[in-house]
């Protein structure tokens, strides 16, 4: 009996060889195709990827502009202090009691809330200093001034309560960065315009600013302010030059608080008011 040859190949014919070679190419390709289809057909959560994309492309910031028609009279005591009272009460200008100085405020608080509010609203000249009506900002309502008095008194422990806001403040309207761009450009342009040039171009109403802010001191000569139209008082000041007068009014000098105590005024407003008063004394 003949034993089988253990070293013989199972491929006996050229046809078998061709089939084996073809299968060696086709089978791996089919397996790879099936695996690819399996992986791509499996659903997966893309919300994370979408969220990351949205985070990358979102705007850098947004501009919120308060409604121009929002009702007046709703400033808090802290807001009024920051906009008007701070210029005198932080540094003690014109004899104003410094914010938080208990020694200076104790005697005043003892006079009572009603008296202090009356002095702040109508103005008051005492032995130690001068308080112009509404801190020099005639646009403030009596309640806003009242809240500022309460805020100052409470800094030294008075424990008073600010008058409630009687009218709801209008909700701010959000503006897209693109829509706000023109306003930003206009602001930038205005900021580079010298105060005197802006006033000369009619951008500010010197008479209106004087009547609303400056008149409280300059109409009566409070705290040594040169009276409106007093040529003798104004002549030496005018001689120093309008630029010097503008700087003194903008940054404060002696008993003159920065911007007359009304920090809401623009530099152009202040310059226009100075020019108006100087012209009236010539």
Could you walk me through the main structural features you see in this protein, from its secondary elements to its overall organization?
- This protein is mainly alpha-helical and 282 residues long.
- The protein has helices at residues 14-41, 47-57, 77-89, 102-110, 113-122, 142-154, 177-191, 195-200, 206-218, 231-239, 242-251, 267-280, and strands at 63-65, 124-125, 130-131, 173-175.
- The chain has a two-stranded antiparallel ribbon.
- The longest helix is centred in the N-terminal third of the chain and has 28 residues, at 14-41.
- The N and C termini lie far apart (144 Å).
- The model is unreliable at 64-70 and 169-202 (pLDDT under 50).
Total helical segments: 12
User: Separation of termini?
Assistant: 144 Å
Question: What is the radius of gyration computed over CA atoms, rounded to a whole number of angstroms?
Answer: 39 Å
Shape: elongated
Spatial arrangement of strands, main beta sheet = 1-4
Encode the helix/strand succession as letters. Answer: HHEHHHEEHEHHHHHH
Strand content: under 5%
Report mean pLDDT, rounded to a whole number.
Answer: 77
**How would you sum up the major sheet?**
2 strands, antiparallel
């Amino acid at each position: 009996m003949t034993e089988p040859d253990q070293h013989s190949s199972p491929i006996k014919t050229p046809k078998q060889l061709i089939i084996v070679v073809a299968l060696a190419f086709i089978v791996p390709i089919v397996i790879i195709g099936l695996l690819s289809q399996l992986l791509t057909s499996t659903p997966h959560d893309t919300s994370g990827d979408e969220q990351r994309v949205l985070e990358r492309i979102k705007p850098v910031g947004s501009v919120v502009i308060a409604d121009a028609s929002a009702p007046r009279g709703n400033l808090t005591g802290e807001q009024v202090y920051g906009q008007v009272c701070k210029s005198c009460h932080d540094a003690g200008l014109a004899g104003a009691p410094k914010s938080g100085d208990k020694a200076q405020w104790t005697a005043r608080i003892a006079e009572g809330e009603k008296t202090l509010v009356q002095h702040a609203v109508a103005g008051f000249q005492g032995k130690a200093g001068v308080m112009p009506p509404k801190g020099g900002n005639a646009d403030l309502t009596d309640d806003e001034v009242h809240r500022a008095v309460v805020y100052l008194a409470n800094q030294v422990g008075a424990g008073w309560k600010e008058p409630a806001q009687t009218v709801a403040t209008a909700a701010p309207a959000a503006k897209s960065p693109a829509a706000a761009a023109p306003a930003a450009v206009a602001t930038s342009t205005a900021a580079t315009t010298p105060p005197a040039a802006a006033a000369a171009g009619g951008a500010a109403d010197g008479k209106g600013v004087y009547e609303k802010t400056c008149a409280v001191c300059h109409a009566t000569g409070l705290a040594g302010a040169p009276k409106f139209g007093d040529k003798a008082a104004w002549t030496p000041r005018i001689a120093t030059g309008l630029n010097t007068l503008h700087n003194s009014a903008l940054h404060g000098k002696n008993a003159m608080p920065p911007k007359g105590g009304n920090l809401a005024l623009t530099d152009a407003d202040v310059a226009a008011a100075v020019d108006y008063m100087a012209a009236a004394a010539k």
